[in-house]
Amino acid sequence: MTTAPRTDAVFDLDALLTPEEREWQQRARAFAQERILPVIDEDFERGYFRRELIAELGDAGFLGMHLRGYGCAGAGAVSYGLACLELEAGDSGWRTFVSVQGSLAMSAIAKYGSEQQKQQWLPRMAAGDAVGCFALTEPQGGSDPAAMTTTARRDGDGWVIDGAKRWIGLASLADVAVVWARVDDPAFGEGGRAVRGFLVPTTTPGFTATPITGKLSMRASVQCDVALEAVRLDADAMLPGAEGLSGPFGCLNEARYGIVWGAMGAARSCLEAALERSTSREVFGRPIGANQLTQAKLADMLLEVEKGILLALHLGRLKERGALTPAQISVGKLNSVREALAIAHQARTILGGDGITDAYPVMRHAANLESVRTYEGTDEIHQLILGRALTGLDAF
To answer: Mean pLDDT, the chain, as a whole number?
Structure first.
């Protein structure tokens, strides 16, 4: 069994979990400690994605672990959340991989795909033998998917897709892309209902994925620009069960749920680094952790980690009952990322100058969390979702 964080001495999370949930958490914690942490600083520095870990994640059952059948583990929502927490305590990029693969690409196929599509892709993706991506965001912005310009038009018995996507995780590594496009066909409705999803094998002529360079965040992960130029597909490439924007939003809510947990993993890692430094670094003849101001910072950080995890646990129990709403997910995503960033910044002050080096994970987590804050809905989008839930008035 892997070593529990020292913060567990105050926060007895295990008492609130089932044995199965604790086993999933321990499995994810071991993976992060043994396979991610020994290499992540080098990978972040080099901007390198360690593709060989994909099959290991599949072997451990983490890919699409919340889905049932087709080689997926069928784990509960809380188990999945705990895995996200532990993987992001290693690095946001690896929780993001599990999220893109499982909560976005695999969930889209599982929720909306035909039986043939599920049989073709889900077992291979669960095993890590195939990688998927989720192509929704476009170069002009991701907050208004109803304004997407990517189109799919009828051509004989098939489809032709043209357009562009940006910030698409895993696209250059993927075997299949879930591409969302506006259908130019009256048979599929008008306005938002014309948005449909398509499974696009990435070897299809006209599909090009180019990794985005110059990133100062998520450097051990892969995000891409995607060009779709006269991409010709068979008629059965469309996801039959996804109609309108409810299709991609249903997947986004799955990913947002994982972030609620994952961001708290990054926050806990920062708190642990600050806690260790507070007892090992001496100034004015005693450990800095013996000073009241330092203890106050540590206490405040622990308070927000505990509150964030308890909120995530509450949302997980709601999800398992089928009672979780999009507004509740927005509460979690907004709170977890906002507080995780605040904790990272506070932890850095305890680490002093050394906190900006890779001797500690805090600056890496802080940089990554800036991306997590933006994707799957910015702070502002989630504030507007909650504002609408409170007032009944749409301010979008």
So the answer is: 94
Contact 211/167 with Cβ under 8 angstroms? Answer: no
Residue 192 banded pLDDT, cuts 50, 70, 90: very low
**Record: fold of 247-391:** Butyryl-CoA Dehydrogenase, subunit A; domain 3 (1.20.140)
Domains 133-244 and 247-391 equal at CATH topology level: no
Among left, alpha and beta (phi > 0; psi -120 to 50; other), residue 199 is: beta
CA–CA gap between residue 20 and residue 313 (Å, rounded): 15
CATH of domain 6-131: 1.10.540.10
376 classed as catalytic: yes
Tokens found for residue 347 = 């932890």
| DSSP assignments along 298-351, one per residue | HHHHHHHHHHHHHHHHHHHHHHHTT---HHHHHHHHHHHHHHHHHHHHHHHHHH
How does DSSP assign 337-378, residue by residue? HHHHHHHHHHHHHHHGGGGGSTTSSHHHHHHHHHHHHHTTS-
Helices in 212-284 by DSSP H: which ranges? 246-280
Distance CA 137, CA 368 (A): 19
Report the distance separating Cα 142 and Cα 132, nearest Å: 19
Residue-wise pLDDT tens digits, 250-289: 999 999 999 999 999 999 999 999 999 999 988 899 999 9
DSSP H/E element including 111: helix 107-112
As given in the structure block, the two tokens for residue 287 are 């450990």
Catalytic member of 229, 306, 376, 380: 376
Dist CA 16 CA 310 (whole Å): 10
Q: DSSP secondary structure string, 124-183?
A: HHHHTSS-EEEE--BTTBSS-GGG---EEEEETTEEEEEEEEEEEETTTT-SEEEEEEEE
Measured in whole angstroms, the distance separating CA 121 from the mean position of its chain's CA atoms is 20
CATH architecture group of domain 133-244: Beta Barrel (2.40)
Question: Structural domain boundaries of the chain?
Answer: 6-131, 133-244, 247-391
Report how far residue 385's alpha carbon sits from residue 395's, in angstroms, rounded to the nearest whole number.
9
**Distance between CA atoms of residues 27 and 29, nearest Å:** 5
> Phi/psi of residue 3, each to 5°?
-70, 135
